[in-house]
Amino acid sequence: MAITKLETYQALTEQSAIDLASRLELFEKGSVLTCKEIGDGNLNLVFHVTDRESGKGIIIKQALPYAKVVGESWPLTLDRARIEAAVLKLQKSFVGNLVPEVYYSDPALAITVMEDLSALTIARSGLIKGEKYPHLSEDIGTFLGKTLYFTSDYALHPFKKKEYVKEFSNPELCKITEDLVFTDPFFNSETNEFEEELTQDVQKLWEDFTLKLEVAKLKKSFLTEGEALLHGDLHTGSIFIGEHQTKVIDPEFAFYGPIGFDIGQFMANLLFQALSTPHGKDNTLYHIENTWTVFTSTFSKLWKESDDAYTKVDGYLEYVLQKSFQDSIGFAGCECIRRTIGLAHVEDLESIEDKEQRVETKRACLTLGKELIVKRKQIHTINELIALIQSH
Hints:
This protein is an alpha+beta fold and 392 residues long. The chain is 50% helix and 13% strand. The protein folds into two domains: 14-115, Phosphorylase Kinase, domain 1 (2-Layer Sandwich); 121-390, Alpha-Beta Complex (Aminoglycoside 3'-phosphotransferase, Chain: A, domain 2), CATH 3.90.1200.10. Helix 9 (260-276) runs antiparallel to helix 13.
């Protein structure tokens, strides 16, 4: 559709978001539109524009040229908006309704206009409230299996894979992950934040050179292994969910990296729920187990349908899955530690009102995170992983 483009980047307001929606003709002519800024994330503006009479809505997301969580002292590329819109469209071709529809995008203004998901709940918020989502792990396992397979060398012509690697190069947001997940929590960094009661635990972690060596290996994997196009930030706050619908959002951290990273990020965010809500632990552990089960069955089915020569080598699929499994365990451990003592904590832990209980839960999270990292090569099955988690 033809609309008048703004010549230079400007941060949207509620009124200019309404004006944009009107120009895009996404509502009936003459509709009275209302808008509310709803973004509570760390990096972007998010607006919910609705037709006052019909209730129809859209979401307008705009990247800011800096990290919202810190301020203008932390500049960020606007190119992440282009990457996000392109990834959502590509993912939709693989997984259909597991991602939102993109109606319009403008890389120069860092704007993506997409399907309204306000009828759904952010998975993290719902899980904290004790909601049960029986399809969560089935849907996320399917999402992981398809997106990771179809963007890998096992599915793509080498030329197409290299084209995607170039298109989705995302160095600035990767640097955030490299620092906040793999570096800062393991050293005395200014970005770290934790309760005074955890000081001795954190000091021991910083002095654990066996742990730091294993984290360095995981960081090398993250830096160098471009196995598949990752979501890059797959946590329970990046998932909208309802009784019969699941939508994965916010792939602005997408890039080509190790298959196990997305899996490990999602597992870790379920672990926060398991540790912080003991009465719902069995349900959370089921979702961890089932995510891996559905991922492997989906990935394996697609693998076996391929006619590529090296996918027919006996034992190679098992090797790829085992490597991805042990990688995911290590990445989950890094995320457990990062979200406990690093920058950008999670509501699962922070919402525990009793301070003593909150500190003890975080201490358990640090201990489990360390074990996942250093013992990952000793864990060979999902049942062994569940047993380790149950011991905490």
